[in-house]
UniProtKB/TrEMBL annotation:
Pfam families: SUI1 (PF01253). Transmembrane segments: none annotated. Gene3D superfamilies: SUI1-like domain. Keywords: Initiation factor, Protein biosynthesis, Translation regulation. It comes from Candidatus Gallipaludibacter merdavium. GO terms for molecular function: mRNA binding; translation initiation factor activity. It comes from the Bacteria. This is Translation initiation factor. Belongs to the SUI1 family. Residues 40-99 form the SUI1 domain. One of its GO terms (biological process) is translation reinitiation.
Amino acid sequence: MEDWKAKLGQHFNIDPENISVPEEKEKAPGKQFLRVELDKRNGKPATIVSGFDCDEQMVKDIAKELKVKCGVGGSVRDSEILIQGDLRVKITGMLEKMGHKVKRINF
């Protein structure tokens, strides 16, 4: 008795060992929906940007650009950018110029 996969492969001229699975591609910036919200950290306002579906290095590069343009500090943890201060409007504008779709929370 033959293997059912071999029979199926013969019927459709497919070699089951050479089937490749497509790799997961990085989402384009325009297809990501980012969330910009205000949070309090240690009693001080902080702007949080979340919702990234890309690799950690791309998130770090975006965070660096935002921090330099705003002239403030911040950090990146778990694909989430934390910017010191209430800069929701400014950061939303910059992200939209970069090609991201932004959802505003707590405006």
